[in-house]
Structures are given as structure tokens and as C-alpha cells.
Design goal:
It contains 6 helices and 9 strands. The chain is α+β, with helices and mostly antiparallel strands. Among the domains are: 75 residues, Roll (Nuclear Transport Factor 2, Chain: A); 37 residues, no CATH class; 50 residues, no CATH class. The relative contact order is 0.08.
Length: 248
């Protein structure tokens, strides 16, 4: 059923001056602007809105709630407040500490809180059905690691790497004449990720020490070449005949 619109109360509508007086008494001088509108909240309860002219609260509005009791003719001020309007400057939505961190924020000495339930991890001894993952999990148990990457964690990481600056869509890769798959400095990864990724071991490459996709590439490829520039002869030496060394 459609909502029934509350009928405008004439007494509350006429209380705009009363609402303005209430604001002037509490607001910083000169910050109460024009009356904008009145909205009926409930029967015999309404809110008058005024423009806020304070430079620090652009887009905000003053709000004054007024009401009247049954059979009462005069309105009464309930409360005053400052509320955001269209285009109001708002502070960022509050986030718990654990959710505020972004990749790259962790510095020396920082420690992330332990996350007991993580979809990207699973016990190292749990069989997944994936031969590569299970073999790696058994190997990790020997190293004392209680959890290893889950299939979801592996897929998310792989997609992030592939879409990042060391994947095929990076500018340096698009301008390269050969891919990492044929480079001698390409070190394949172990496990299920070896079919797509490896590590760059070229000190001349901008990807040195980073995970790169097989179809990534750069100008430091081991098998590519470039024409060496011909040495340019030096012209006639210029002798400065006006320089004088003062000897004492």
C-alpha cells in the first residue's frame, strides 16, 4: 500500500519565526540563513530547515523540530540541530582499525591483528583435492606453518598480480619486444602458480625481485638486442686563452 502523506499542520507551519528564534539563541551570529522548508515528520510534529551560512559547514542545514499537543494551538520547540544537506562536506565513514589498513600501509614495527577466520587461508593439513595445493600443504607442515593459502586466496592473489604493474597490461610490458617466458632471468614459481607466474632475477629490470607473469616483459630481456650508437668524434678542442692562474 502507498504511504499516506501526513497533512500539513497550519500551526506548525506558522512556527517558522519561533524556530528561527530558537536557532539564533544557540548558533554563531550570522550563520542562520533563509528558511528553506518545513517537513511533516508525524502528526503534530514537523521540522523547519534553515540555510547554514557558516563557511565551515557548506551544504549543511539548520533543523528545528516543533510540535504541538492535541488541541493545543501554539507550537513548542523540541530540539535544534545541524544536519547535512545535498553537497555537504562530510567526514569519511568510520571504519574499525583492522579495516583501515590498505596494502602498503604496514611499516617497520607494525603488526597486523590475528585473523582467526580468513577465507584466504586454510589449515596446512586439510586436503583440498588440488594435487599441487595438497603437495605444498604437506611440505609446509614440515616447516611448521599451521596455515597455507586456500584456493580462494591463491586465485585472489593471482588476479591481483596479473592485473598489477608486473602483468601483461603494464606500460613497460606493452612496449617490450619479448615476454618473460623466454627470458633467462625468469625463475618459475613452484606449485599451481608456476603455470602463470615466476620471479624476475635481472638486476637491470624494473621488476627485479618481483613476481611477474609469463606474458609480462621489459627492455632487460636476456635474448633481445638493440643497436649500439656509433661513437661521435670530438670536435676541435676549445682552449680558453683568457684564463689566468695567479701565483703567489
Amino acid at each position: 500500500m502507498p504511504e499516506t502523506k501526513t497533512k500539513t499542520d497550519p500551526s506548525l507551519l506558522a512556527a517558522s519565526d519561533l524556530a528561527r528564534e530558537a536557532l539564533v539563541g544557540i548558533a554563531e551570529p550570522g550563520t542562520v540563513g533563509d528558511h528553506l522548508e518545513m517537513v511533516m515528520d508525524e502528526e503534530r510534529l514537523a521540522t523547519h530547515y534553515f540555510a547554514c551560512t557558516s563557511f565551515a559547514y557548506q551544504g549543511w542545514r539548520w533543523a528545528v523540530s516543533v510540535a504541538r499537543a492535541s488541541r493545543q494551538k501554539d507550537a513548542t520547540v523540541c530540539e535544534t540541530s545541524l544536519v547535512p544537506g545535498v553537497g555537504a562536506i562530510l567526514s569519511p565513514q568510520w571504519l574499525p582499525y583492522a579495516e583501515r589498513l590498505a596494502p602498503g600501509d604496514l611499516g617497520a614495527g607494525d603488526v597486523l591483528p590475528y585473523k582467526e577466520q580468513d577465507d584466504y587461508l586454510e589449515p596446512g593439513f586439510e586436503a583440498t583435492g588440488d594435487e599441487d595445493v595438497d603437495q605444498m600443504a604437506v611440505f609446509e607442515l614440515g616447516l611448521g606453518r599451521p596455515r597455507v593459502l586456500s584456493a580462494e586466496g591463491r586465485d585472489v592473489a593471482a588476479q591481483r598480480w596479473y592485473d598489477g604493474s608486473h602483468g601483461p597490461t603494464a606500460e613497460v610490458a606493452e612496449k617490450a619486444t619479448a615476454t618473460c617466458s623466454t627470458c633467462g632471468f625468469f625463475v618459475p614459481m613452484a606449485g599451481a602458480l608456476r603455470t602463470v607466474f615466476g620471479v624476475c632475477a635481472s638486476e637491470w629490470s624494473p621488476s627485479d625481485g618481483s613476481v611477474v607473469s609469463l606474458d609480462h616483459g621489459c627492455g632487460a630481456h636476456s635474448e633481445t638486442d638493440a643497436e649500439a650508437p656509433e661513437p661521435e668524434p670530438i670536435g676541435t678542442p676549445i682552449v680558453d686563452e683568457f684564463a689566468v692562474d695567479v701565483l703567489v
